[in-house]
Amino acid sequence: MGSKKVVIVKGSPRRNGNSAILADQVAAGAESVGAEVDVFYLHGMDIQPCDACEACHASMEDECIVEDDMQNIYPKLRQADALVIASPVYWFTV
Q1: Which Pfam families does this entry report, sorted A to Z (predicted)?
Q2: pLDDT tens, position by position, for the chain (94 residues)?
Q3: 58-81, pLDDT tens digit by residue?
Q4: DSSP conformation letters of 28-43
Q5: Is 52 inside a domain boundary?
Q6: Residue 93 belongs to some domain of the structure
Q7: Could you give the strand order of the β-sheet that contains 36-41, starting from the edge strand earlier in sequence?
Q8: What's the rounded Cα separation, in Å, for the pair 94 and 79?
Q9: Where are the beta strands (DSSP E) in the chain?
Q10: Rounded to an integer, what is the distance from CA 39 to the centroid of its chain?
Q11: Could you tell me if residue 51 is inside a domain?
Q12: How many structural domains are present in the chain?
């Protein structure tokens, strides 16, 4: 069995904020035990809403018709053993 694959998604607009600091600690911990870690910083990426075409319902391997930066993330999500979402909480909401 190969190393575990972890995807970390940073959702805060602050690159060095509390969410990013915690996500970096999770990444360091996962790497320290041999995991392969991919980190995606969403702020500034071109991510468009779903068109509800339902192509992904037919097969999770089908490519999304929306051509945005998620095309770089989808393959990593499909292969991931673990997903970490680091999102800030502002005024008790996400």
Answers
A1: FMN_red (PF03358)
A2: 579 999 999 999 999 999 999 999 999 999 999 999 999 999 999 999 999 988 888 776 778 889 999 999 999 999 999 999 999 988 888 7
A3: 776 778 889 999 999 999 999 999
A4: HHHHHTT-EEEEEE-T
A5: yes
A6: no
A7: 36-41, 5-10, 82-86
A8: 26
A9: 5-10, 36-41, 82-86
A10: 7
A11: yes
A12: 1
